[in-house]
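Figure 3 (text version): structure tokens given as input.
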């Protein structure tokens, strides 16, 4: 295998499943509605996305084909639930899974930022423990993360995941998602303006 080829939405879905497994174990695996809400959170997400249920379902089908997620239907329930299988397919758990999830959900981070933002995902005892987890991910074949060149003026170098190819490729694909969201917002704004115009016309006719 030369490298991972997940698209940004697949990365978001997997990251959200990892996060909610740790933060809300009582409601994990997640229903489609819960997973969509987790992917579209306005906090702890970079970039912020606005995905539909259809987007998530198509992504789940793709991830299931790759054996990275599984669908469950609990006894007595008609609602399907979804869980990740990265502990089986990628042999990840604990510190390594937590560090990777933060990079998947928040973009490139320093080891200090990962430790500060890990919360209940994993209680990192030190920055060195974070570095150890990241180094283990970087040493996998193919590597799952990479340490980026330290930016001018920065105290620490950042790390980025490689699940969607090189970091620059990730940026470009996320920008496409942002452009798509901007287009949908513009369309909604146009619809609102059209409705306002019709409302004014109706009010004028009533006054007459």
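Below: residues designed for each position.
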């Amino acid at each position: 295998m030369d490298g991972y080829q997940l698209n940004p939405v697949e990365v978001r879905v997997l990251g959200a499943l990892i996060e909610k497994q740790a933060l809300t174990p009582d409601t994990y695996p997640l229903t489609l509605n819960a997973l969509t809400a987790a992917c579209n959170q306005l906090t702890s997400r970079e970039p912020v996305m606005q995905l539909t249920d259809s987007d998530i379902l198509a992504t789940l089908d793709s991830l299931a084909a790759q054996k990275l997620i599984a669908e469950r239907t609990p006894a007595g329930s008609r609602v399907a639930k979804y869980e990740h299988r990265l502990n089986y397919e990628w042999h990840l758990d604990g510190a390594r899974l937590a560090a990777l999830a933060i990079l998947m959900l928040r973009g490139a981070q320093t080891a200090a930022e990962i430790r500060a933002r890990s919360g209940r995902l994993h209680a990192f005892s030190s920055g060195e423990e974070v570095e150890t987890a990241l180094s283990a991910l970087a040493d996998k074949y193919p590597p799952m993360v990479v340490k980026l060149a330290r930016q001018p003026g920065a105290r620490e170098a950042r790390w980025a995941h490689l699940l969607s190819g090189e970091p620059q490729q990730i940026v470009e694909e996320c920008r496409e998602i942002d452009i798509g969201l901007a287009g949908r917002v513009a369309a909604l704004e146009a619809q609102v303006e059209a409705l306002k115009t019709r409302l004014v016309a109706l009010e004028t006719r009533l006054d007459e």
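The CA atoms of residues 29 and 169 lie 31 Å apart.
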